[in-house]
Amino acid sequence: QVQLVESGGGLVQAGGSLRLSCAASGGTFSRYAMGWFRQAPGKEREFVAAIRWSDGRTVYADSVKDRFTISRDNVKNTVALQMNSLKAEDTAVYYCAADRVAGLAFPNINTKNRSSYDSWGQGTQVTVSS
Questions:
Q1: 98 FRET partner, CA 20 to 30 A, in 18, 51, 78, 115?
Q2: What does DSSP say about strands 46-52 and 58-60: parallel, antiparallel, or unpaired?
Q3: What one-character-per-residue DSSP string does the chain give?
C-alpha cells in the first residue's frame, strides 16, 4: 500500500521560497509518475507539477512555470517541490500524489488530471502573505 507524507509547508512572505517534500513508501516507484496538486479555499484541486520517476522528465502548470521545480531522490524515495518567488495566490494546501502507471508518453492527456492519481498524501498548508 502506497503511503505519501508531505512536509515543509508554512508561512512565508511574498517573494520568498519554500521547499516541500513528499516521502513515498510501499510501491515500486520507478514505474510511477508523481505529482503535486494544490487546493485553495473554495476552489477546485489543481495540478501544479509532475515528474516521471524513471527518467526525471517534468511538466508544470503555466502558473508556476519558471518559479517551481519538481525533483525526485531515488535513494531517499522522496519527491520535492522547490517554490521560489512565491505569490499570495500560491496560498493553498499542497498535496503529493502518485500515479502507478506513468505511461510511455509523458506528459500525456492524463498527467494533469487528478483522477489519474491513485494515492494521495494528507496535504501541507502553504500560506504566502502579501
A1: 18
A2: antiparallel
A3: --EEEEE--EEEETT--EEEEEEEESS-GGG-EEEEEEE-TTS--EEEEEEETTT--EEE-TTTTTTEEEEEETTTTEEEEEE-S--GGG-EEEEEEEES---SSSS-TTTT-GGG--EE---EEEEEE-
pLDDT digits (tens, 9 = 90+) for 86-104: 999 999 999 999 999 877 7
pLDDT, tens digit (0-9, with 9 covering 90-100), for 30-71: 889 999 999 999 999 999 999 999 999 999 999 999 999 999
How far apart, in whole angstroms, are the C-alpha atoms of residue 30 and residue 32? 6
Residue 4, CA distances (Å) to 89, 93, 122, 123 in order: 25, 15, 8, 9
